[in-house]
Amino acid sequence: MSFINPVKRFYLALETWFNLSFGNTWNPLYNLGTLTFFFFWVVFVSGLYLFIFFDTSLSGAYASVEYMTHDQWYVAGIMRSLHRYASDAAVITILLHMFREFALDRYRGFRWFSWVTGVPTLWFVITLGITGYWLVWDDLALYIAVQSSQLMDALPLMPASMSRNFLESQINDRFFTLMGFLHLLGQPVILFFALWIHVKRLSDVSIVPPRGLAVGSFIALLALSLIVPAVSHEPADITKTPAVLNLDWFYLNVYPLMDYWTKGQVWILTLGVTGFLMIMPWLPKKKTGQAAVVHLDECNGCEQCAMDCPFDAITVQKRTDGARWANEVVVNEDLCAACGICAGSCHSSNPFRHSQQELVTGIDMPQSPVNDIRNNVESAIAELKGENKIIVFGCDNAIEFSGLKSSNIAVVSFFCVGMIPPTMIEYALKKGADGVFVTGCRTGDCYFRHGNKWFDERYAANRQPILRKRADRARINIFRAAETDCKKLRRELDKFQQSLVDLNQKNIEESSEVGHE
Amino acid sequence: MNKPLRYLLQAFNFSMFMALVWYFSLYPAYHQLEEDQAMITFTVSHAGKHIRECVKFSQEELLKLPPNMRKPMDCPRERSPISMELKLDDEVIYSKVAPPHGLYSDQGIDIYQNIRVPAGKHRLTAWLNDDVKVEGPIYKLSQDVTLKPEQHLVIEFKPAISGFDVH
Ligand code: HEM
Ligand code: SF4
Ligand code: SF4
């Protein structure tokens, strides 16, 4: 077994556990981005409700929050708790989301953009939470206000000291109004915009999780809100320093550091961590393969590849070569992740075409053109010996499969299972393989986002190009696994081999029965 | 896996998730002070005196200056550093010599310092010097205070009242 780093191993074990309990489509780890969006929706809607009763003045804020929490606990109180707990839950899913992209090495190469644009969103989320706690104007809010001001004062931007605002009994009302404005409007708008940029380079981004997951999360949040409703500390009082504060560690974690470090050191840490996260995609950098190339002579502008590209790298434009079709496609090389999915989408990638000459397709991968794949499939099958000839079509980014090669098993590698033209499977069967064994990423997950989903839809004849009926499904095995599932791979392949033996046996019996009649 | 078992596992996972959310939204509690401590904030926002008095330019000096820069008095921009000390009973709890801010050392300083002290009866003494031309304390404070646990006492240097304001 090849070396798998322990971080990845740990992550995959977690994923396996969640697949067991949620099934693949509901696995929260496959839906961390959408779950975060879901929590934001809960925060947004509950926030709108709170806004109705919230008094944005310094003198009235605390009392209005108390009213919601205690007098109107049955709606506003629950909304408050949902607002708080969904915000906290979002921090957990964001951190897991980051951890996952890191553990699976999905933050470098063509993914640098998603990673780098993710980092500022972290700041926007945390600071949004901070102003939220500020608005309650209780002891905790005062603590946050003073500590934040000290941090701001340590920056060389501010002409006048901010911390001293809070010393007068006439605390600066305008400052509070500013926080209100930031929390209720400014910061949410910035966050929304930042998230829009974050997913801009991806296509088919979902911002609602699978229903079961959404319902489950909501029930869980509601239960927590009823069991432990969110409450305030005592009202802010400048003449008091409460000994104990119940900090929300998801949002307010840096403040206690200021007891040990100077403000400058706290800034160096936070900015240092941010800076480090920002340059991580280049430590060291990861190469992306060559971008897809369009061969207009073989393209009729059907747009299938543009619909399937998970990275929004293909655009459709008016035909430029005078051919009779209306449209053509162009690849934006800067966005292309070299996943090869487009080559699998193109109906021209059909190996039965041009059998005597080079196979040119509408859109192809320079490092592994469809023509080469056809040749590999043909020669690999020709070398196989024995009764049960199996050809493995494997994705390079899932489990390591080259070790499966034996006298009756051949392997052909693809960038992604989405790169396999369905006709290539038929072709392999036609050329003498008894079975085709396809291995790719776990269902629900895909290194190239949508590859295995498109594959499944083509297999089920729900997506073009379809795997035709005449391809005997009994001779095709679809295996899904992560790197750590080596034993499972072996077992599944053995089982498939046995099923092919049985199938051949049955065919022989059937044909001999026919012979007797 | 059968459905009921799966739902059970999901309920378990959601509970763990919410337990995490609940716990870290409140705990571990942050102890800002020990139960029998009070907080003193010592704060100074002030610009020191100029390092020397203005002097009249002599005729030769004036001639040496470019015509548009000529003015009768030579006033320094640079300000004095501010030195200060705060004592609780006999113990110095804060002391600092703060150099003036600004590229030309021509601006004031801003100090905001929280100090945890035991509650109870104490004698507070403080001094501050904002002028290099003068030796020793210029402004002084001496006051008896009784600090309740969790009290927040602010000692603020106020140029307007030429001294310390305790509130
Ligand atoms: C603040 C809340 C965040 C939300 C709501 C969010 C949401 C999302 C969503 C919906 C996707 C698309 C997933 C897909 O459909 O494949 C995504 C992708 C990604 N996110 Fe975030 N994200 C957030 C923060 C972050 C942060 C802080 C980082 C890392 C620093 C990050 C790194 C990434 C990366 C690397 C991808 C690329 C995934 C891919 O190309 O398949 N995200 N995010
Ligand atoms: S190789 Fe992948 S990313 Fe590049 S154009 Fe084709 S489908 Fe899009
Ligand atoms: S799938 Fe093939 S034929 Fe269709 S637009 Fe893309 S390259 Fe052209």
Compact overview of the structure:
The complex is a heterodimer of chains A (517) and B (167). With 517 residues, chain A is of the alpha/beta class.
Protein model, in words:
The complex is a heterodimer of chains A (517) and B (167). Chain A is elongated, with a radius of gyration of 29 Å. In chain A, strand 3 (314-318) and strand 4 (327-331) form a beta hairpin. Chain A folds into two domains: 31-279, Cytochrome Bc1 Complex, Chain C (Up-down Bundle); 293-516, no CATH class. Chain A has helices at residues 6-22, 32-53, 58-71, 73-103, 112-135, 139-154, 173-198, 211-227, 263-279, 304-308, 341-345, 370-383, 422-430, 451-459, 486-516; strands at residues 244-245, 293-294, 314-318, 327-331, 363-364, 390-395, 409-414, 435-440, 476-480. The longest helix of chain A has 31 residues, at 73-103. Helices cover 50% and strands 8% of the residues of chain A. A four-stranded parallel sheet of chain A has the order 7-6-8-9, sandwiched between helices. Chain A is α/β, with parallel strands linked by helices and 517 residues long. Chain A is built from 15 helices and nine strands. Chain B has 167 residues and is α+β, with helices and mostly antiparallel strands. Chain B has two domains: 1-30; 31-50 and 79-166, Sandwich (Immunoglobulin-like), CATH 2.60.40. Chain B is built from two helices and eleven strands; from the N terminus they run H-E-E-E-H-E-E-E-E-E-E-E-E. Chain B has helices at 3-24, 59-64, and strands spanning 30-31, 37-46, 55-56, 73-74, 82-88, 91-98, 109-118, 120-129, 139-147, 152-158, 163-166. A four-stranded mixed sheet of chain B has the order 7-2-10-11, with no helix packed on it. In chain B, a hairpin with a 4-residue loop joins strand 10 (152-158) and strand 11 (163-166). Chains A and B meet through helix 1, helix 4, helix 6, helix 8 and strand 1 of A and helix 1, strand 1, strand 2 and strand 10 of B. Strand 1 (244-245) of chain A pairs antiparallel with strand 1 of chain B, so a sheet runs across the interface. Bound molecules: protoporphyrin IX containing FE (HEM) and iron/sulfur cluster (2 copies). One iron/sulfur cluster binds at residues 291-292, 309, 311, 313-314, 331, 336-342 of chain A. One iron/sulfur cluster is lined by residues 291-292, 309, 311, 313-314, 331, 336-342 of chain A.
